[in-house]
Amino acid sequence: MMKFDFARLTKPVQAALLTSVIAMAPVLAGAQDWSTQVTLYGWGSSVKGDFTPLTGAPTLSFDKSLSEILEDLDGAFFITGLALRGDLVIFADYTYSASSREGLVPPGIPAAGEVTLQSFTLAAGKRFDLVGGDSIDLLGGLRAWKVEGEVSVPLADVDVSPEKTFADPIVAVRANAALSDRWSLIGYGDVGGFGVGSELTWQAAVTANYRATDNLFISAGWRELYLDYEDGGTKFDGSMAGPIIGATWTF
User: What average pLDDT does the segment 38-42 reach?
Assistant: First the structure.
């Protein structure tokens, strides 16, 4: 009999599967009074900011307009899961983005680099129901990060690729506004870091959502995720931002 080897999956796939399992855990456990949903998004995200891999290494600056995103984007997506029981809310989010570029570093030497950012957010809190089917969720939790970067300057014999992992506490708010039987708006924002892992991290997202069937929603909107991190000579100060489109399955 063929055995399933979780360790052989790529890390993005591992994290996506874990996010889904967290969101669906109440259903898998047979708790009938839980409701859950899982959303997979494609993200036209670019990395904007400055990345310094090590002390003394060149700083690579990313700054792309929306028209340049697809040219330099190596890949970006995120998956979210949400479970609700009464007024208890559990929220999970996994994000992956990789962006590369070529350019010049002082005094005009050709250079190339890539930044890959992965984050996993897990938070829980309370839902407050409002009139007309609207709601607001207040949440608190953690966001774990993995930052990988590479800067290559062949003429200066520089090729460095450090990797950093750390975690940040966060506080978050999520609002759901029902516009009609089929249309809704969702806004999400969080802030964290506070010098624990990073100096500062925050994200904001807004989506318009269309209910295609009883269990399927189609969404489109915009998302930005920011990080200001410095440790041991490795510095990253920038954000991932861009349009998103996704599909939500409810259980």
Answer: 92
